[in-house]
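During the first year of the project, the team set up a workflow for recording each protein of interest as an amino acid sequence followed immediately by a discrete structure-token representation. This format lets reviewers and collaborators read both layers of information side by side without switching files. As required by the reporting guidelines, we include two representative entries from the current panel. The first entry is reproduced here exactly as it appears in our internal archive.
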Amino acid sequence: MTKRLLPVIYLIVLVTGCSSYRPLPVDELNIDSRLTAYKTNHGSIGLSIAENPQSSVTNMKKYSDWYLLKATDLQEKLYKHSDYSLGFGVAGLIAGVAGSPEGAAIGALLASSSTIPAERYSLAVQAQNYQKASDTLNCMYRHLAPHKQGELPRVEILNDAIYQIRIQLRKLQSSITLADPDMEKLKNSLATLMTKEKERKEARAQKDNEVALLDLAKNQHNISGDSKSKATLDAAQVKLLGTKVNLETKIREQNEAQVRTCLATFVS
């Protein structure tokens, strides 16, 4: 009996000692190349820091995709160990029914040991943290991508948001702690976002009103052609220009508030 259990014990040692499941460090090697080819290449860690807002938004998408892949990989490992546990348990049951107590013992031993890596390294927690990091970055990307040609926050703000998510993920993975947002911070961020959205709507309404007044001034000038109507037209054009600048500012501020709100769902 003891000799027959030795290979099983050896297998348990191998299974429980798998270093690939350990949470440290967060895997960010060569995201560009591994996202496209999914090949391991020991090189630079993470993506290059963006030098403009558009590149920073692109980096958000890349990190989001990468963390989603990591979450999926960890979930598959978790499911695999669950399947092993079930398979070994059934094998032990069959052996027991067939009258082989040694086979039943081996099956029970393997069934219990196959879940050890998942428990020791908390694969479910790691997967959830990667998933939340991916969702947070995707939240930012979804709201900012339509503005890549215009009203984006400063590149420093966007790069800092990415950095905060990466740091938070490393902290969570090193301590095997599930991401838990600060609800008060999230509440304040949402309140700010709602305020900025209201200001943006008011600025857009003002712009629409100025456009209508400009059209009216153009029509009056076309009819009369005098200096008074020309002065009114010039004033309307200047006012509309200022209104457009104000609207762009409000859209940029709303986008910045959106980034901070997404960030608050992950970084406490």
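The second entry, processed by the same pipeline in the following quarter, appears below.
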Amino acid sequence: MNLTINDIEDWQESEKLSDDIKKIINILLAAINDWPKPIATLAEYEIEISKLIGSEADKINIKEYISKADYSLNAWETESLFQILEVFTHYENEKTLKQIIEEIENKIEIL
């Protein structure tokens, strides 16, 4: 499944999703809103982040990128990444952003 941003916005208010998943969706939507380029899907957003940071989008790599980022050149991207770090606090083990997005899409798909 490759959910569009419009799909995610529709599911954001669903009674069928857990409050935790709704929180994660809200964080993702806020982070995508800060991204300087238009984003159509969650998968596209994950790809954009991986391209920017030059590696797989996980908590460690995102933190490392932020620590070295030039805010004058990448202010919007960095703000988006700061928000994405909040998503990782909802998971015990070290998952990649791609795995988190796939998990959310799978939960929505079975509803």
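For the second entry, the following points were noted during internal review. DSSP finds six helices and no strands in the chain. Residues 18 and 107 are 10 Å apart (CA to CA). Both points are flagged for discussion at the upcoming steering committee meeting.
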